[in-house]
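We now fix the convention by which a protein and its fold are recorded. The integers have meaning only within a learned vocabulary of local backbone shapes. The record below shows the convention in full.
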Amino acid sequence: MAGATYPSNIRTLTVKDGVLPKIGHLLNYDSTSGSGTVDLTAATDICVYVALDESSRDANQDLVTSGATITAAPVGGPMFVRINAGESLVCGQLLHVGANGEATKTAGSNKVLGHYLGDATTSVAATLYPVNTKQTN
């Protein structure tokens, strides 16, 4: 359809005070404040968004710690995410939502995030890895 506009799935979200997410971090809605802000996931949380950049900065380029925003996309398709350091990964590896906003192989009571899409490797801190994320848990 010529001239049609389509809504974007990309969102600008307000971050819970004191939280400093970076690109690839897993995000959920902050259940403690009830203010509609996002927070890094904990081990048993459902991942709702993946951060596409880092939280906002002020005029001096310092990270904002109160009222910060972040650009994020909802889960449900291929995304680049952070995975706990030291995890041995193979293509198709089932990953779960982990603590500190990172994915993990640990199942336990952790919610499913999706499947790893890359070559066999051992994960490194602060590195982004391709994961086919799920919309529901």
User: Anything to note?
Assistant: Residues 56 and 62 are 8 Å apart (CA to CA). The longest strand covers residues 69-74. The radius of gyration is 15 Å. The chain has a mean pLDDT of 90.
